[in-house]
Specification:
This protein is of the alpha/beta class and about 180 residues long. The protein is built from 7 helices and 7 strands, in the order βαβαβαβαβαβαβα. The chain has a domain of about 100 residues: Rossmann fold (3-Layer(aba) Sandwich). α6 links the parallel β6 and β7. The chain starts with a strand and ends with a helix.
């Protein structure tokens, strides 16, 4: 049986997210690890970083996709961390190209808070009809995601809206 991979999409800058965003993201990573699900991230800061940490510290396997061409650029130019990942692939495709690879590599995507990069990943996942889990109440672009769905008028019946990390993952696994 193949192992499930879930991509984490979320705000790299969590200043405008809910006050407990780091704890929520960590809990998502921990829940993925406990279910032996591979965690995929954009090898970035913020909510994806905390999800990676939660997975890594609880025995999960974490893969990152960097926008940078190599580790040196990842650290010095993009100013991104390398912690809490077992492996980081350096795509050299900047943020938008990295986002495409991240979303397409997962069996599903979880959205935690977010800004324009998260919306970019949301649009990709929506177009690909990927199973999606949106952590409601985490802040960020949730209201725009709902608006996009209403305006798109395209059927997509694999979207979970849930405020509880554990319930979100349970429901998302059912969709996968």
């Amino acid at each position: 049986m193949r192992q499930i991979k879930i991509a984490i999409s979320g705000a790299a800058d969590t200043a405008f997210c809910s006050s407990n965003i780091n704890e929520l993201a960590y809990e998502i990573g921990k829940e993925l690890a406990e279910r032996n699900i591979i965690t995929l991230t954009g090898a970035t800061t913020g909510a994806p970083f905390w999800a990676a940490k939660g997975a890594y510290e609880n025995g999960g396997y974490v893969i990152g996709f960097s926008p940078a061409l190599n580790e040196d650029e990842h650290i010095k130019v993009y100013e991104l961390p390398t912690d809490y990942h077992h492996i980081i692939f350096y795509t050299g495709l900047n943020h938008s190209g990295r986002n495409l690879i991240l979303v397409r590599s997962g069996d599903a995507v979880i959205f935690i808070c977010g800004r324009t990069g998260t919306l970019n990943e949301f649009i990709i996942a929506y177009e690909e009809k990927k199973p999606m889990g949106i952590l409601t109440g985490s802040g960020g672009e949730e209201k725009y995601m709902r608006h996009i769905i209403e305006e798109a008028k395209k059927e997509h019946n694999k979207i979970i809206w849930e405020p509880d990390p554990k319930n979100l993952i349970n429901k998302l696994i059912e969709l996968i």
